[in-house]
Amino acid sequence: MADSPEFGKVVVFGVGLIGGSFALALKAAGEVEEVVGFGRSVATLTQAIDLGVIDRVGINVGQEVSDADLVLLATPVGQMAEIMARIAPYLGPNTVVTDGGSTKSDVVAAARHAFGERVAQFVPAHPIAGAENSGAAAARADLYRERKVVLTPLPENSVLNVARVRSAWEWCGAQIHELTPAEHDRVFAAVSHLPHLLSYALVHDLAVRDNREVFFTFAASGFRDFTRIAASHPEMWRDISLANRVALLEELDRYRAQLDELRAVLDAGDGQRLEEIFDTARTARRAWQLGQK
Amino acid sequence: MADSPEFGKVVVFGVGLIGGSFALALKAAGEVEEVVGFGRSVATLTQAIDLGVIDRVGINVGQEVSDADLVLLATPVGQMAEIMARIAPYLGPNTVVTDGGSTKSDVVAAARHAFGERVAQFVPAHPIAGAENSGAAAARADLYRERKVVLTPLPENSVLNVARVRSAWEWCGAQIHELTPAEHDRVFAAVSHLPHLLSYALVHDLAVRDNREVFFTFAASGFRDFTRIAASHPEMWRDISLANRVALLEELDRYRAQLDELRAVLDAGDGQRLEEIFDTARTARRAWQLGQK
Questions:
Q1: Whether A266 contacts B245, CB under 8 Å
Q2: pLDDT surpasses 60 at B1
Q3: Chain B residues close to A219, C-beta within 8 Å
Q4: Which of A45, B163, B202, B247 is found 20 to 30 A from B1 (Cα to Cα)?
Q5: B2-16, pLDDT tens digit by residue?
Q6: What is the mean pLDDT of residues A190-204?
Q7: Which CATH class is domain A7-179?
Q8: Interface contact B204, partner A, CB < 8 A
Q9: Bridge partner list, A11
Q10: B249 CB-contact burial (10 Å; exposed 0-12 / middle 13-18 / buried 19+)
Q11: Is the pTM of this model over 0.80?
Q12: Is A131 part of the contact surface with chain B (CB cutoff 8 Å)?
């Protein structure tokens, strides 16, 4: 006799790339009995059913959430507070909630506000996985395979609830890490959000010039790679930047101080220090690259 | 009877990727009778002969340069002033000199100093081509095919000398553009040198932290592309930064002003303006990408 699935009903809010891939992965692992999807767009929900991403479209939030084992919030971060408020009154005693948001302090603050004492049932998560495409059609059972998922457990979380959320992401094939929400936001401000800001800034500064054509004509492969992330979705990055504003401002200020030093070194023609800075960076970048799969 | 080659003797100083590929391309086009190579390393010169990149190793600079049709300076920019001083007394009346340096105002200043009135025989050039590897073994006849070469002709250059240099790079398969040396340096400061500086700065700022490991652990694809150029050669980029210091400082200051604006917008939580900036950048980046081959 086969083992029974670890999760009975899983409810997913937002059946796009993140939520849809989570559902498909649990299904592929045989670890979920039923996936119920909520979303804003009827067309997307219909597509999610057609593609086998979800089994049913949810109608009544209270009814679906009260006996769910697991709820995943996979909407843009800006919509999560509202969904939390809607589900809070109905959370069953055995329901655990997680999310897929790329910032954590703001999500945790919203969760504390919406859930009150029941925030113990909310275990925040950030799957480090993206793809060129979005939407239910882009969802893939293997999106999280060998990718990192950062859990940022709360002091209120029981060991059991953290273990259940960890297990769900592990069934998706992910490598699980743990940080505090503040650590998480600081780290991602530095290695993701700031680079996006810097890349947008470079292209914007060129784009607003009268003679921009001559600049773009001679932009080559270095420019291409440096600015690839400046083609990212403006609304999404506006939201992330605002959601992680405090940590991002701190990282931006550190970076501006670094540029101030570089400017002084360059202005002084201090080739030795310039090469030192470049060399330290190259050594670190190469070591990082070697550590990547 | 086949047409005779356009160039008789071509002398190349520096037989690595840039100089070697130039030689191989002219040979492949059947447009050079003999290539003579000068260089610092006997091993590299020997390799260049073995690979058919050059026909002979030059011994006597005066002798080789006096009857050369074309001389290419393909060493690092920092070595060019010295080579110019060595060849200046021997330039034949029909010898035209070009270079492959990635900065132009400093090379032109060195050329004016070394050549005096004969600077009319120097037509500066910057081939926009690089590769992962360097050295004679990396040289390829097709390196410049469909790549851009920027000529920055001087007021003193005759139409004929500009045409000869243009023709040589065209035989290499390149698309020829013309800018003034100052325009060239401003453009490349903005689209190449500044991005390198910014990328090095980001990685350096992480690399010097005590807790750098946690940052590098969660760096992902956005970081990878943004920082690819931070793995570039420190000595080379030190030299380029110093050689193009004036234009680079101007671009760096523009960029710092752009960051100041972004900081203020973020600090004020002005989502509308933030999205505008991101959107302008994305639109320009996408248009640029579409225009690339």
A1: yes
A2: no
A3: 191-192, 288
A4: B163
A5: 578 999 999 999 999
A6: 98
A7: alpha beta
A8: yes
A9: A36, A71
A10: middle
A11: yes
A12: no
Contact between B216 and A188 using a beta-carbon 8 Å cutoff? no
The domains of chain B are located at: 7-178, 184-291
Chain B residues closer than 8 Å to A207 by CB: 280-281, 283-284
* Global ipTM: 0.90
The three-state secondary structure class of A195 is helix
Instruction: Please name the member of B177, B259, B279 whose beta carbon is closest to the beta carbon of A201.
Output: B259
- Which chain B residues are within 8 Å of A279, Cβ to Cβ? 234
CB pairs under 8 A between A and B: 275
Q: Mapping DSSP to helix (H, G, I), strand (E, B) and coil, where does residue A185 land?
A: helix
| Residue B212 to residue A284, Cβ atoms within 8 A | yes
Task: Give the confidence band of B229 by pLDDT, cuts at 50, 70, 90.
Answer: very high
Instruction: Tell me if chain A has a CB within 8 Å of the CB of B286.
Output: yes
- CATH placement of domain B184-291: 1.10.3660.10
Q: Is the pLDDT of residue B251 over 70?
A: yes
Closest partner residue to B258 (CB to CB) among A201, A216, A217 is: A201
Is the CB of residue A133 less than 8 Å from the CB of residue A17?
Answer: yes
Residue B82's pLDDT is 96
Interface test with B, best of A146, A278, A280, A293 (most B CBs within 10 A): A278
Q: Mean pLDDT, to the nearest integer, of A160-169?
A: 98
Mutation target among B282, B283, B286, B289 for the A interface, most CBs of A within 10 A: B282
Q: What pLDDT is stored for residue B132 in this prediction? A: 59
Choose, out of A148, A194, A215, A218, the residue to mutate when testing the contact with B (most B CBs < 10 Å): A218
Burial (0-12, 13-18, 19+ Cβ within 10 Å), A259: buried
- Pick the residue of A184, A238, A267 with the most B CBs within 10 A to test the interface with B by mutation: A238
Query: Is B202 in the A-facing interface, judged by CB distances under 8 Å?
Result: yes
Which class does domain B7-178 fall in?
Answer: alpha beta
pLDDT 10s digits, B4-61 = 899 999 999 999 999 999 999 999 999 999 999 999 999 999 999 999 999 999 999 9
Q: What is the pLDDT of residues A27-61, one digit of tens each?
A: 999 999 999 999 999 999 999 999 999 999 999 99
- What confidence tens digit (pLDDT) does each residue in A214-223 have? 999 999 999 9
Mean pLDDT of the A56-79 span: 95
